[in-house]
Protein 1
Amino acid sequence: MYSSLISKIEKAKRYAEEPERISFKSLEVAFRGDNGTHAVSLKGDEWSCECEHFHTSGLCAHVMTLQRVFGVNLSDNARYTQEHVPA
């Protein structure tokens, strides 16, 4: 019994050292920014944030932060690149 559990714990440790194994298909978070808390979500490759800047420009600091934090876990289309910055 314990050897099986120990094996699972070791496997979990190994997996945790390889975060690229994990891919987000959706994500919903409450992001505490300087001016309040905003709902930020990822559905497929589409980001959304309830802050004003996202609604006017399609990009905001909240989304860009999550793209940096979870970049290894995002698809290429959901990951931040310079091409997403409006001119």
Protein 2
Amino acid sequence: MAGLDGRHRDKGGAISKKHGNTKVGTLRKEYGPGFAKGRRSDMMLKTLLAETKCESLHEYLKKKHR
């Protein structure tokens, strides 16, 4: 079941977050082709967050992805 900010509930109801090893290309499927524009699709989320000084995907989406 889809949750907030790309998080999903497992069968026990817990919400999981995107892992740092998720690739930008995978996130583009969910957030559109403009996500992390100018960056390679094989870039890891943790690298994107470090480069943009964001602590989470949620923060990145609020600040950078408009």
Protein 3
Amino acid sequence: MEIIVHIKDVKGNQMAAKISGTFSIDSNTFKFSAIAFGRIGGHNIGAKISKTTEKALEKLGYDVNEILDVLQKNLVSGNITLPEGLQKESFADS
């Protein structure tokens, strides 16, 4: 399953950051938010989607837990697109 993750905004630093953005699957785009923690014990990201988004994904036949897993893996691995002017180094370890 291919999910394309677009970051809209990041507030915070390398220790903890709040991320907002969208993800696209097939021709559908949905909003998400996430909290990213780094350093102690490695990187961890908790992504959240709204109940409305969950219902829309289910209606389209997607497994919500699988979508969240792939979304979080993309975020952790840096498989994302960033808005112009935002540098990954400002909130993620190189």
Protein 4
Amino acid sequence: MTDSNQFSYLCLQAKSSKMSISLKGDQKISSVPATKSKALRINLNSDIYGTFAEIGAGQETARNFFRAGGASGTIAKAMSAYDKDFSDAIYGIEEDRRYVTEERLKRMLHHEVDLIEDRLSRKKHPDKLFFSYANTVATIDFSKKFKGHGWVGIRFQLDPLEEFNEIVLHLRFKETDARLQQETLGILGVNLIYGAFYLNDNPKELLKSFYDNLYKDQLEIDMINFSGPRFMYVDNRLMSLQLVKNNMTTAVMFGPDGNNLLPAQVLYKKNILALRGSFRPVTKVNMDMFERAKELFFSEKKVDPENSQIIFEITLSNLRAEGEINERDFLDRAELLCSLGQNVMITNFQEYFKLVEYFSEFTKARMGLAMGVYNLIQIFDEKYYRHLSGGILEAFGKLFYRDLKVYMYPYRDEEKNEFITSENLKVHPRMKELYKFFKNNGKLIDISDFDQEIFHIFSRKVLKMISEGEEGWQEMLPEGVAETIVKKRLFGYSKSRKKT
């Protein structure tokens, strides 16, 4: 079939397939290709050739390519090693003996690519763009208590002479029927392969395309990592932010190395201490609160320091504090926290009880929240709970039910020349009894061993000094942070000028 005939055939098939149309305001009508059309376009590209290895939810992705027609030009092999012994014989044995893991998925991807390179001669196929698509998935169980999750990925070339690129993601199913989950996985797989080859120059759009012909209440994507020569300049932390920003998930996490982490894996059965803030930039006050809260948290009998995870959390509402999310500003904050060796979490939880509920999905161990006085006052503000049928009592019921401690960092009242602690904190009269109950039940602990010499430091003040080129802000930041800001020109430092 000639290129022109291929194109005509593709157009004809696209017209015969259902297309989802979206129209917003006065924008032009834009169409999302149907799953069949995407699979067909891949099949009709004579250069794209690879394998499908799917474990745990049938061969739904490969099925879409077979049903679209012309699959012999795309699929070198499709397989499912469902038996564990067969799977181990092919891909090896994982140290943890688990199969639905990122490590297992990567073994599959690399193994299948190695087989393609070994079995297909480059002399015979000089223009072929090889790929391997894989997924390892656990669908919903019979009791429907565990909805299921999985790892999906593709390893692919965009030039026969280039190294392979890789996209790896984790999903959590929301549907409560195994057959529907299988079909959802199949559509996602087609979207991933199509995006890898045709949207790779725009990772943000590629990310959005994962939900083409799907709905957000079908699945959640809570982790993704891009790697390879074509994604050399992609910051995976920014891709994490896109997941939350586009409502694909409610929380994401990345480590000190900048690579995204799976929250469920990092937090599983751990003691968790979370510190919420703007960290714009992170100051000595932030780190003093962190160190003092950590000391108190680790001194708890129910806390195992060796099995604990500390999280620096930034909410999406905080990132939107000045309107639209400034991605450069976000990366500047992330850069500093990563340089301090911290795990960072971005969430869509404005209320603390939602954050605690989220943590409780992964652990029943003791949890802690470190916060300043103003954050604690917000917890006792009824306006944040008007959307709940039970109001603030419902929210506090969810907090009290958990094994949780709140570590409060004081505030210095300059007018009265005193530190505000849990003993002299004033809350709304209607909240007094609730506050007493909260405090008297040992849920609230004062951070008393704090550095009194740093209470003049505020992030917004430091940020203003940096942008206006004033001196003295360096001494307000933890060791090494000022050097990082200067070296990497963070928070507009390159635009600053020293005052004469």
